[in-house]
Amino acid sequence: MPQVTTPKQLFKHELQDMYYAEKTLATTLPKLAQEATDPELTRAFTAHQKETEKHVSNLEKVFKQIGESAQAHPCPGIEGIKKEHDEFMKENSPSDEMRDAFLTGAAARAEHYEIAAYTGLVNQARALGEREVVDLLQTNLRQEKEALKKVETISKRLLKESNGNGTSKSTARAKSASR
Predict the structure, then answer these.
(1) Alpha-carbon gap, residue 32 to 35, rounded angstroms
(2) Considering only CA atoms, which of 53, 49, 15, 55 is closest in space to residue 136?
(3) What are phi and psi of 130, to 5 degrees?
(4) Residues 53, 26: contact at Cβ < 8 Å?
């Protein structure tokens, strides 16, 4: 990649990172939906996967708007979050409860990353005077914030269910089975 020396080049670089991140997530979310055992979490991943496909499309429109071809540049941030997931799943044999709790945390980390990236892109687009681009990026940002709220709500419920009485679902099931 050529040296980044102008605000527009920086914007393009960060746009390419986000394009890579969204394309990666579009292919990862169906896997997360399959791994999740909580029905609400599965639905959230499936719904966000559809939104993520729209985010990819919006980013392609942004590239077109600034006169560039849509190109993805490997994004170390999203790769790190993905690697953390893959290593956790490989190194552990988590119970359904622990897997779902981990997945909500991983999803929250990804959403926080995306929110930070989109916030920066919106600010850069404003500074560059790209009004239509700002609108597209704000749409994605708004949906990422909504997805974060949803996953945090699910996480709180799951943690309450597993820790609420000091008894996890699996402990409760074991006690019930022994009666």
Answers:
(1) 5
(2) 55
(3) -95, 80
(4) yes
35, 103, 120 from 84: Cα distances, Å:
15, 11, 24
Burial class from Cβ neighbours inside 10 Å (0-12, 13-18, 19+) for residue 92 reads exposed
- Residue 89 DSSP class: H
Q: For residue 97, give both structure tokens.
A: 């409860």
- Residue-wise pLDDT for 102-145, tens only, equals 999 999 999 999 999 999 999 999 999 999 999 999 999 999 99
CA-nearest of 16, 19, 15, 86 to 52 is 19
Tokens of 79: 């790769």
The pTM for the full model equals 0.88
End-to-end alpha carbon distance in the chain = 66
Alpha-carbon gap, residue 110 to 108, rounded angstroms: 5
CB 123 within 8 A of CB 56: no
Token pair 């980013």: residue: 59
Task: Tell me how many degrees the CA angle 123-117-49 measures, rounded to the nearest 5.
Answer: 125
Q: Which tokens go with 83?
A: 């690697």
